[in-house]
Amino acid sequence: MKIGKYEADEYLKMAKEFHGYDMPGLIVGGFMVDLALKNLPEGEVFDFLCETSQCLPDAVQLLTPCTMGNGWLKVAYTSRYAIIIYNKYTGEGRRVYIDPAKLDKWKEIKVWYLKEKDKKEQDTKKIFEQLLEAGSDYMSVMKVKVKDAYLAKGKKIPKPVAACPSCNEYYLKKLGDKCPACSGDAPYELIK
Amino acid sequence: MKIGKYEADEYLKMAKEFHGYDMPGLIVGGFMVDLALKNLPEGEVFDFLCETSQCLPDAVQLLTPCTMGNGWLKVAYTSRYAIIIYNKYTGEGRRVYIDPAKLDKWKEIKVWYLKEKDKKEQDTKKIFEQLLEAGSDYMSVMKVKVKDAYLAKGKKIPKPVAACPSCNEYYLKKLGDKCPACSGDAPYELIK
Description:
The structure is a homodimer. By secondary structure, the first copy, chain A, is an alpha+beta fold.
């Protein structure tokens, strides 16, 4: 069983190292990315979008050239376990998601995914075994067009940087007269 | 010159491989993370927050255990080049940022960061040399307390999952009667 270009156990080792610990979501994510790549029209320049930040972004970052820092991977939170591979200029692509209609067959995966039992009552070994056996069997693919906000803008025009008159730090001028933090969106407060 | 536990050239090689291409931002990010870790009280359980998704998340993911997929790294966009290391339970931490008052000394870095010249007129070699020479010289550290939204909630209580009555897919029930996508926040539209 392969995940992307890796043998499953090779991928799992790599994923555990990057992610810090084993997680069923890393296996799900691995097979999701694998299925997404297989549904990609040849020669396509693609980006990825994850609908949750739970595990899936790490699978994308490990199996594709797309990372959070290079901008080819984005998260648009809907809390559903799904990823979208899409042409970064047109937005056309494929969405890979967990298909409830196909999940009944996989009891252990369902126990984990729907939290049908408390974590300590879950049989982790069985869950992992079933995830590896199932591959992408419980997933489906739909054709989608990603919204404009997630597309690359073609030729990159450098965005002017300005010193914020309030904090003095540099920010993207197009965002307003002050930086977003000084306009009320700071993720922190100063302390002594 | 070291970046985290790596020699600078070792880090740069690793960063280029993960990120896909060389970027000044990866060096800036490397030294930011390095400075943040040095300002961490010993034994602290920390998370990271980046104020831009440009390059900095990749530096954090390469140099620390924090990744997008394991939830220990978050992005709160202000467009400023800054990262915050913080106690994931109390929110207290340190913010590392590019200090405009210290940047004048480093002409090439300023040319790059403030986009004072067109990209093709920039001397990339000089910029990289100066970034490696400067280390974290043009950065400052402030004490901050990160807002509650970015904190870990202590003992993890499993969040109930439900089937969305509209799309049938599973989502976090606490988010409403329908999943966020069916409530109007889908990042895509269906196509044929």
